[in-house]
Amino acid sequence: LETRPVLQGAVVELYRSLPARSTMVVADLGCSSGPNTLLLVSLVIGTISDHNREAEQEQRPPAAAMELQFFLNDLPGNDFNLVFRSLDRLQKLTADRRPQYYVAGMPGSFYTRLFPCRSVHLFHSSYSLMWRSKVPDELSGGAYLNEESIYIGKSTPPAVIKLYKEEYQKDLSLFLTLRFNELVCGGHMVLTFLGRKSKDMLLHGEASSMWDLLAQALLSLVLKMRVKSTN
User: Which Gene3D superfamilies does this entry report, sorted A to Z (predicted)?
Assistant: First the structure.
C-alpha cells in the first residue's frame, strides 16, 4: 500500500510518454506463485484504465492506445502452472478494462541476463532482492562456520557477517548492471526490499528475529533426529 503511489506514478509517466500503438513491457522480478502474484498486472491495468477514465471526464485527450506485455520472472522451480491457471480469473476481472495485455513467464535468476538490450520499460520487484544469489563460497565450502544460524544471528562470527555483506554488494551491483542494459532509455524501476537503519548487522528487527526462530526450530528437528544435519 505504501509503494502503490510510487508504482502508479511510474506507470502513468511511462504510459503518457510512449508513442501511439506501441507496447509497454513490464517485468515483475521474483513474482512467486500465489494470491499476490498477479497484483502488479492488475495494478498496472487498473492505473491505466483509471487514468484514461479521468481524462475522458475532464474532456482531455487520453494517452495514445497501446498494448501491455507482462513478464513474470522467478526461479525455474517456481510453480508457473499455478500462475497461468490464475490468469482466467484475472481476465474476468479486467474484461471491461483497456488496454489489451499479454502475460508470459520468464524463468531464471534475476542475477543473470533475462531480456534483450533496451527492451523493458518498467522493472518491478517486491521483497525479493534481499535474497542472495548463493551462499558465500567460503561458508558453503566449510572454511567458515555459522553454527546454530541459517543467516546472520547472535552467534554469527564477524568473519561470516563480512562474507554475507560482500556477497550482497556483489549481487546488488550485478543486478543493477544487468537491469541497466535491459531498461529502455527513460524507463523506470520500482524495487521494494528489506533494509536496516543501522550499520550494525547484529541489531535485530522483525526479520532477523524470524530467521533466529526458524534456525531454532530446524536445530530442534536435528536434535530429535527428524532431519539430518549436513555439517
Answer: Vaccinia Virus protein VP39
Q: Give the three-class secondary structure for 197.
A: coil
Kindly tell me the burial class for residue 84, based on how many C-beta atoms sit within 10 Å of its own C-beta (0-12, 13-18, 19 or more): middle
Residue 131 DSSP symbol: S
What's the Rg (C-alpha) of the chain? 21
Nearest to 5 by CA among 195, 206, 192: 192
Whole-number Å distance between alpha carbons of 75 and 84: 15
- Across the range 184-201, mean pLDDT stands at 86
% pLDDT > 70, the chain: 90
Task: List strand residue ranges (DSSP E) for 32-168, in order.
Answer: 67-74, 101-107, 120-126
pTM (global) more than 0.90: no
Task: Considering only residues 179 and 231, tell me which one the structure prediction assigns the higher pLDDT.
Answer: 179
Query: From CA 195, how far away is CA 207, in angstroms rounded?
Result: 10
**Helix, coil or strand: residue 165:** helix
